[in-house]
Amino acid sequence: MFIDEVQIQVKAGDGGDGCLSFRREKFIPKGGPDGGDGGKGGDVYFQTVENLDTLTDFAGKHNWQARNGRPGLGKNKHGCDGHDLIINVPPGTLIYDCDLGLLLKDLNKVGMKVLVCQGGKGGRGNKSFATATNQAPRQTTAGKEGQQRNIRLELKLLADVGLVGMPNAGKSTLISRCSAARPKIADYPFTTLEPVLGIVELSDFRRFVMADIPGLIEGAHNGAGLGCEFLRHIERTAILAHIIDIMPTDGSQPAENYYTLRRELKQYSEALAQKDEVIIANKIDLDTDGKIVEDLKNKLHKTIYPISAVTGAGIKELKELLWQKVRELKKQMTKNSETSNEPRTTSHKL
Ligand SMILES: Nc1nc2c(ncn2[C@@H]2O[C@H](COP(=O)(O)OP(=O)(O)OP(=O)(O)O)[C@@H](O)[C@H]2O)c(=O)[nH]1
Ligand SMILES: [Mg+2]
């Protein structure tokens, strides 16, 4: 089950209460106060880990709570601090506070860790109130409550190349040919029902991540087909690979299908539509004399990369091209982030 949005409640641990106690021992009259302080409640963190790619772990669990601090004890014993709760999420998870309607943090890299709820402080035991003029205090304080938040987690997968196209265009066939991902492939529309990530490997240890998402149809922004919601998973890709079926089984025109899909992308988000795009004409094995691809080139007036995901024609060149483009864009992005003065910390406190 692929889950990319959940709402949960997280709570840090409460602080333990301070202890009221006096030293009582044989032959030691008036032993004095010896109540220890309470322990601190555990904090709640979110952390990104590599081997996760959905929010399925949250499906059956709404409440997430760190351990409370233990109360202080006699003989000046400090209560134990509560254990922190570290919640693992996939890279690309956005953390929102539902009540404040605020984006708290975008965990867009592996190994990031963010503190979202701070544990309550432990209370003071009566020993800590002892002074020269008040040597037998009976005063203690209770532990503080841990912070609590209603959190919404939203996952936007992190990939370098996002495959977009109409159903049946051959997106899944392409990703399964380029990577170890094995999404279902069939000759009916909407075979793919959830996003799939694949790592495309080239020679000399070069690699990039490709995302296959369910097909889009006209009216997707109004909910037609599977709607546009999966587009969020390619919002952060460096480039879009737009796959056109040159011989759609429904008899539609490849060029018109291209423009229909572009309109849908634009309706969903202008930023997405502005992304660099590589146009791929798939199924050239069915175009024996090359006329359909030629016609498509003339109609779109854009560079088109012909491939056949089934026979493998043009795939090697396509992988090289995508890798080059991803590398250039990533270089540009790191240059931009270096010129901005954003601190490069990996652990944050909110
Ligand atoms: N002849 C030919 N058939 C292809 C090619 N690529 C894909 N197909 C066929 O097209 C059909 C659809 O392929 P998929 O990869 O499932 O298409 P998709 O774009 O992932 O479709 P959805 O998941 O429904 O959006 C399958 O029957 C494939 O075998 C190709 O290069 N040549
Ligand atoms: Mg598919």
Explain this structure to me?
- The structure is a single chain.
- With 350 residues, the protein is an alpha/beta fold.
- 18% of the residues lie in helices and 23% in strands.
- It contains five helices and 15 strands.
- The chain has helices at residues 171-178, 254-268, 270-273, 291-300, 315-339; strands at 5-11, 44-48, 63-65, 85-89, 93-97, 102-107, 113-117, 148-155, 161-165, 196-201, 207-212, 239-245, 276-282, 304-306, 347-349.
- It has a six-stranded mixed sheet with strand order 10-11-9-12-13-14, with helices on both faces. The chain has a five-stranded mixed sheet with strand order 3-1-8-5-6, with no helix packed on it. Strands 4-2-7-15 form a four-stranded mixed sheet, with no helix packed on it.
- The two termini are 31 Å apart.
- Residues 342-348 have low confidence and may be disordered.
- Bound molecules: guanosine-5'-triphosphate and magnesium ion (MG).
Summarize the structure.
With 350 residues, the chain is α/β, with parallel strands linked by helices. It is built from 5 helices and 15 strands.
Query: What's the pLDDT, averaged over the residues?
Result: 91
Order of helices and strands: EEEEEEEEEHEEEHHEHEHE
- Count of discrete alpha- or pi-helical segments spanning 4 or more residues: 5
User: What general outline do the C-alpha atoms trace?
Assistant: elongated
- DSSP strand tally: 15
Which oligomerization state do the chains in this entry correspond to? Answer: single chain
* Bound small-molecule species: guanosine-5'-triphosphate, magnesium ion
Beta content comes to 15-25%
| Low confidence ranges | 342-348
Report how far apart the termini are. 31 Å
Helix and strand content put the structural class at: alpha/beta
- How much helix, percentage-wise, in residues? 10-25%
Radius of gyration: 29 Å
What topology, given as strand order, has the largest sheet? 10-11-9-12-13-14
How would you characterize the largest beta sheet? 6 strands, mixed
